[in-house]
Design brief:
alpha+beta; Cytochrome p450; 4-stranded mixed beta sheet; two-stranded antiparallel sheet; 18 helices; binds protoporphyrin IX containing FE
């Protein structure tokens, strides 16, 4: 395939982006996409350097509509590190230990009525409820009766980071993002009277003190926090089960050696990362070592390509191997100052789901089904059906 034929919106691409990205990578680890004019970074080193070195804070950059003005996550330097630092202690691996029990309870609850032979609709029954409730707990916000509407708004808001979104979708998604912001604005008013030791309260207090962030930054900050860990985890949960069951010998290996679970999760994140790319805009010329990017260009940092780059992973780059010793070097959670804040939380949730299903239903199978793959940026099947077998 020549880069001119690259179409990341086609069903064939969505079913297997890795084949197309491999062919692009063979042409070079960096080039300009003729269709969109965006600069593609494809090699492991280039993607890592791009994510680390290209700043976010361009007010005219492609992500401007996602983050609203004043969102600390769209800044670089102290305006970003200060507010982000407020949450650092909440999201460390150690601090999150208390969420392990909570995640396990949610997973157990989702599987409570299941017996051998039951069908599991992964996304509806476990994939969404898990991050939904964990996000509520971390932020300290109540459950809502219209959960499906909220699910739709959070998905459409997140999808705004799609580098190939057509204009009509952009409009629709902007509206959904606005509705989510309205909802979170109401929650903010409620929250002011219900402060606790949760993340929302930490942010409100810091904004009132005014040293690290300002009151008008609360809502955009919460908006990002609310959606960043939702559909990423939903999709990665489905992709984890899909990948393991598609490579049945690896499922069997994990059954036989449950202590491989941590590394299996890392290999899944390398092999099938739901966050397929992240965007940046260069404010000035950026030296990435082998290449220099000009100022004022939109850049797509292809995580999905970096995670399969033969120059990093060798001849077995396209092999799914849960014993891979350097699997942890994947960049499924990004790299640099904006690296995923919730990576430990996500790992904990993925382990809870996989560990429990492997333990209770070790002979689970994935029946033949036509998967519909959603989104080229936060990619995953719209639903995945499994047959649970003890
Ligand atoms: C498997 C699930 C997840 C994946 C694959 C994922 C992936 C990513 C990636 C690739 C980035 C980098 C963005 C960039 O460089 O532009 C990121 C950022 C972020 N993630 Fe995650 N994420 C996941 C789960 C979570 C969870 C559970 C949370 C919890 C709140 C979270 C919160 C965030 C936040 C706040 C940022 C922005 C950080 C910043 O700009 O400083 N993520 N995530």
């Amino acid at each position: 395939m020549h880069s001119a034929d690259f179409d990341p919106t086609s069903p064939a691409y969505l079913a297997d982006p890795y084949a197309a990205l491999k062919r692009l990578r063979a042409e070079g680890s960096c080039h300009v996409d003729p269709a969109s004019g965006q600069w593609f970074l494809l090699g492991y080193d280039e993607v890592g350097a791009g994510l680390t070195k290209i700043t976010r804070g361009n007010p005219d950059g492609p992500d401007r509509h996602v983050h609203f003005p004043e969102n600390p996550f769209s800044f670089d330097g102290p305006g970003h590190t200060g507010p982000r630092g407020l949450l650092a202690s909440t999201f460390t691996n150690r601090a999150l230990a208390s969420f392990r029990d909570r995640a396990q309870l949610i997973v157990d609850d989702a599987l409570r009525d299941k017996e051998s032979g039951s069908e599991l609709r992964v996304i509806e029954e476990i994939g969404f409820p898990l991050p939904y409730h964990i996000t509520r707990d971390i932020l300290g916000v109540p459950d809502v009766p219209h959960r499906d509407t909220l699910r739709d708004w959070t998905w459409k808001s997140l999808e705004l980071i799609d580098a190939f979104l057509p204009d009509d979708k952009l409009q629709e998604n902007m509206e959904a993002s606005g509705r989510l912001a309205e909802h979170l604005g109401e929650v903010l008013e409620w929250k002011r009277g219900h402060l606790g030791d949760d993340v929302f309260s930490i942010i409100i207090r810091a904004a009132e003190e005014g040293e690290i962030m300002r009151p008008q930054q609360i809502l955009p900050f919460i908006h990002t926090l609310y959606l960043a860990g939702m559909h990423t985890t939903v999709n990665q949960t489905a992709l984890s089960l899909y990948t393991l069951l598609q490579h049945h010998e690896q499922w069997e290996l994990l059954r036989a050696q449950p202590d491989l679970l941590d590394n299996a999760v890392e290999e899944i994140l390398r092999f099938e990362p739901t966050a397929q790319y992240m965007r940046r805009t260069t404010e000035r010329e950026v030296d990435l070592g082998a290449i220099t990017l000009p100022a004022g260009v939109n850049v797509v940092c292809w995580i999905a390509s970096a995670n399969r780059d033969e120059s990093q992973w060798g001849a077995t780059a396209d092999v799914f191997d849960i014993t891979r010793s350097n699997a942890r070097q994947h960049i499924a959670f990004g790299k640099g100052p904006h690296v995923c804040l919730g990576s430990w939380l996500a790992r904990l949730e993925l382990r809870a789901v996989l560990g429990t299903i492997l333990d209770r239903f070790p002979n689970t199978t994935m029946p033949e089904q036509d998967l519909v793959w959603s989104s080229n940026v936060i990619r995953g099947p719209e639903e995945l059906i499994l047959r649970l077998e003890a």
